[in-house]
Amino acid sequence: KKRILSGVQPTGDLHIGNWLGAINNWVTLQEQYETFLCVVDLHAITASYNPKELSKNTFSTAALYVACGIDPNICSIFVQSQISAHSELCWILNCMTPINWMERMIQFKEKSIQQGNNVSIGLFDYPILMAADILLYDADFVPVGEDQKQHLELARDIAQQRINARFSKDKNILKIPQPIIMKNGSKIMSLIDGSKKMSKSDPNEGSRINLLDPPEIITKKIKRAKSDSSIGIEFNNPERPESKNLMMIYSILSGKEISQCENEFLETGWGTFKKLITEQLIESLEPIQKKYKLLMNDPYQLSKILNEGKEKAEDLANQTLKRVKSKLGFFEME
Ligand code: TYM
């Protein structure tokens, strides 16, 4: 079986962008691939965070993976900071990666503007830690949202040009991973501005629907979501990004093709459409929220899942790290 690896940061509530862009695709892919999913808590400290919340958020993010339909019997779910090989490979890759490759990273530029005077080296290094996450598991594929494409290219370049090309004679040391970015859902936009992506770091809560939002909050957020003065909900009109975004969300959740939605909503007004998408969101999120509550009420079960995941992941990660260190010339005990 080919292998996939992916992860989400445990920074507060996950939103439907994380779900439709990433987690939902893991659910589809898990039967076909050997699946490793981590909660990337070391990435979560690259922005200011609350130490009282980190561990709680890590646990609840793992619970959400399962609540969204990840089957712990066939996937390994684990916490990044529990496996020290991630930090260790990251250091080695740091020393192999030219700074000017890093200076091109779009997400770093965007986030460092948001963080003003508080930008850490960790934020700059974030994509290299991500490369370590992926390369440690010899992942064939990495299912992520559109915004991670550049980071995936970096991971490929580091593996290929900076490790394999320089240090392997015959067999490659590191496997070159490929992104899986779905056509639909890989870029869900903000509810209040259809030109910006939905993001956890947007200070306006109304810009996103969180997976754990109760029905009344969903209703309120959709009611306030940006609309326009045209009649009919369209998909392909570049002047109506909000219309496109909501139709995309509705299409994925309802399982109806975009073309079918286009026909159906040709003459539908915003008020009617907003009611429909609100109902759809509530209906789609209800089973996730129910399962999440059950899991959180039984922390023992989830801990067991994370322990088993850790064991399997750690084994694999340590093997890769050992291989890398040996090829790069580190001292080895007899
Ligand atoms: P994070 O937590 O920011 O995002 C997690 C996943 O959600 C996707 N995503 C979106 N998809 C569609 N529309 C959106 N508006 C949207 N917002 C976020 C992201 O593309 C991502 O797939 N750096 C990663 C975490 C990471 C990782 C890894 C992923 C660390 N190591 C190794 C894969 C493999 C990130 O963006 O997390």
Automatic annotation (TrEMBL):
Annotated ATP binding sites: Q9, P10, T11, G17, N18, G145, E146, D147, I188, K197, M198, S199, K200, S201
Main location: cytoplasm
Annotated compartments: Cytoplasm
Keywords assigned by UniProt, alphabetized: Aminoacyl-tRNA synthetase, ATP-binding, Cytoplasm, Ligase, Nucleotide-binding, Protein biosynthesis
EC numbers on record: 6.1.1.2
Enzyme class label: ligase
GO cellular component labels: cytoplasm
Catalytic activity, as annotated: tRNA(Trp) + L-tryptophan + ATP = L-tryptophyl-tRNA(Trp) + AMP + diphosphate + H(+)
Coiled-coil intervals, chain numbering: none
The protein's assembly and partners: Homodimer.
Function: Catalyzes the attachment of tryptophan to tRNA(Trp).
UniProt-recorded name of the protein: Tryptophan--tRNA ligase
Organism (species): Prochlorococcus marinus (strain MIT 9301)
